[in-house]
Amino acid sequence: MRLILLGPPGSGKGTQGVRLAERLGVPQISTGDLFRKNLAESTELGRKAQEYMSKGQLVPDKLVLDMVDDRLKQGDTAKGFILDGFPRTIPQADGLGTMLEAHGTKIDHVVLIDLDDEEIVGRLSARRTCSKCGAIYHLIASPPKKENVCDKCGSVGTLEQREDDVPETIRKRLVVYHDQTQPLVDYYSKAGLLRTVDGAQSPTKVAQDIVRAVDA
Ligand code: AMP
User: Fold this and answer.
1) Residue 36 falls in the annotated catalytic set
2) What is the pTM of this model?
3) Number of Cβ within a 10 Å radius of residue 184
4) What is the pLDDT of residues 85-125, one digit of tens each?
5) Are 88 and 185 in contact (CB under 8 A)?
6) What is the distance in A from the centroid of ligand 1 to the CA of 23?
């Protein structure tokens, strides 16, 4: 299955993407994670992307599309993939369509995880991410079992606040989302691919709704 998870920052795309990927046996591809990995490895792409990420802006389409094109050429995507945080602009969506067409495939479903702005600022301010394995926590709603120890990989002291999860940058990211990414709701709705789930529910309920939406 080839699926896109669409939604504002903090709507739970990362959490849901990991769950769905495990369930479906396909990779989760997060462009944000790929940029952060490049940054951690000090690649040129990572350094270029960081200029935009730290300001809450989008990385230019060409850089994103080249990176995704490379990723989709890897063998593990043959049975499908879950895209998380990509596409984020109309040119990216067009570019993805062209890439898939070249491989004789297409997107099966686009799931919008809907959440309003007030909820997002609260969620992202309390988000902590394991710098080692990428596991995501919310300090109040889903804290790690032991303070500052990652439940998933057991690392101590690696739960960090992302540089762009501070209120001023969160607000910028929301403006960017409404301006540049929200038009994709209409884009995929017109293509007959869009399903919407309520992101304000518990992660388990959101996961159930997504499975129901893509099975329907
Ligand atoms: P995320 O982890 O999805 O919230 O992404 C973090 C940041 O990475 C974003 O605020 C952007 O600066 C950059 N980024 C991730 N995915 C994309 C994309 N598809 N297009 C442009 N920039 C992106």
Assistant:
1) no
2) 0.90
3) 20
4) 999 999 999 999 999 999 899 999 999 999 999 899 988 99
5) no
6) 25
